[in-house]
Predict the 3D structure of the following.
Amino acid sequence: MYNPESLKAEEFISHEEIQETLGYAEKNKENVELIDSIIEKARQLKGLSHREASVLLACEMPDKIEEMYNLAEEIKKKFYGNRIVMFAPLYLSNYCINGCTYCPYHGRNKHIARKKLTQEEVAKEVIALQDMGHKRLAIEAGEDPVRNPIEYILECIDTIYSIKHKNGAIRRVNVNIAATTVENYRKLKDAGIGTYILFQETYHKESYEKLHPTGPKHDYAYHTEAMDRAMDGGIDDVGLGVLFGLELYKYEFAGLLMHAEHLEAVHGVGPHTISVPRIKHADDIDPSAFDNSISDDIFAKLCALIRLAVPYTGMIISTRESQQVREKVIRLGVSQISGASRTSVGGYQEEIRPTDTEQFDVSDQRSLDEVVRWLMEMGYIPSFCTACYREGRTGDRFMSLCKSGQIQNCCHPNALMTLKEFLMDYASEDTKAIGEKLIEAELANIPKDKVRDICKDHLEKIEQGIRDFRF
């Protein structure tokens, strides 16, 4: 029985409910009156249910799809303005005991080079990332309780936060590691992590168990219920995601939104972020072996409808996707992107991008400076801000500010100040020139006079060498 308030995976992600939802959506995909009413509800910024959003996903009428896209862009601007948050992944270890059939780190892959960073190597990776200008990391590690125990992850987090190189500092560490215990989530919270991220991979239980034939990740319920344990452990910012291409995308879309509804129903706080990765080529993995791959057009539609259904969430897209795809979906709802990513263990220290330990191929291989300049040329503000996390605006406190629109009074000036830091410390001359013009123009868009004056003062002090101002 479907019950969003249940703590049992098979009840808050109900296979029967998803099947009924998909049938309802197919039946009503040309019901113009219903579709118009759902779009109008989304326009009120209150979000959509998984069933309502599934109707829009099934709809194939070009004029209605264009209306959805325009509304997604409008909603994103209302919640996040024209800011795009920047981050980078940091791979700590690719030792893994799971048998995931779509990931090259799986335990049976005997020819991939295995590596685990020492703390000295972690420090070198962090310095390399700081020298690019990054302030926010997402750490990644395979599941191996012996080689990658929670103590190792905690030690790495401590090392990352301790490195201060020139004007560089990592101010927020998000964590993407395997499902674990409430006790271990408490330890991660105490270590000062930002968001705990865990991709469901697929919400289809039968497919999930086939795709994860061996290892602790085989346990569907334990994995699916991880966010509840994380919140019980005090982590109030969690990030959901599926790996599109493993199962039918309409099924995954409904399951993803049901998971968001569950978090709202039980904890009063929905997902801080939703990631939208697609399966890509990697060592030992051929994406064509999975027959549920999705086109760029469907991918864009999914991004737009996630923005309509969960308007407050941060939406993340990685360098798995090309520049062209990222450009399209940023307009439709994406609010966070990675830049200059390397998905290999120890990859940032290497002058030439290594491929022997990559988790997946990187489509967008531009430098961070190039990505920042590209965003600004399109009229976006690349933001390196971590202020909400550091000021305690997390969980329900962040969501209440975000849903009310008040977060703009903090985020806009914080984005400008962190961009100014990047321009002063790391940018090329061309990027700096474009950025200075953008900051000058965007100052006028800070709604409150007092905040604008304070921001101007802080920008002048950043010019003088002082760092780390925030609202």
Summary: The first helix runs from residue 9 to 12. The chain has a mean pLDDT of 93.
